[in-house]
Amino acid sequence: MSDQVNRFLGDSPGRTLVKLIIVSLIVGFVMKFFGWRPLDFLYGLRRFVLDLWHSGFAALGEFGDYLLLGATIVIPLFVILRLFNYRR
């Protein structure tokens, strides 16, 4: 059982705990220095997803406009070419 825990953690539980404490202190210091809060990251992620969502649908709207503009030329030409080839 202990070997499985060590393999899962990548090291002994004590050493893993010490590493996590040191990394947490460094990350906490950097976050405090820049005035960041954990919720700032969540709000930023939410804002990013919403902006991506809205701009994505705007891009799809433009894609649809381009599709309809092109189809007004391509579809009639396709039908005319098919009719001329059908007579042969």
Q: In whole angstroms, how far apart are the ends? A: 80 Å
**Strands, count:** 0
Shape: elongated
Tally of separate helices: 3
Helix proportion range: over 70%
Q: Topology as H/E string?
A: HHH
Largest sheet: none
Q: Beta fraction of the residues? A: under 5%
Poorly predicted tracts of residues: none
**Cα-atom Rg, whole angstroms?**
29 Å
**Mean of pLDDT:** 85
Computed structural class: mainly alpha
Describe this structure in words.
The chain has 88 residues and is mostly helical. It is 90% helix and 0% strand. The protein is built from three helices and no strands. The N and C termini lie far apart (80 Å).
Task: Please outline what is shown here.
90% of the residues lie in helices and 0% in strands. The protein is mostly helical and 88 residues long. The N and C termini lie far apart (80 Å).
Helices and strands in order:
Blueprint: H1 2-9, H2 13-34, H3 38-86
List keywords for this structure.
elongated, 3 helices, 88 residues, mainly alpha
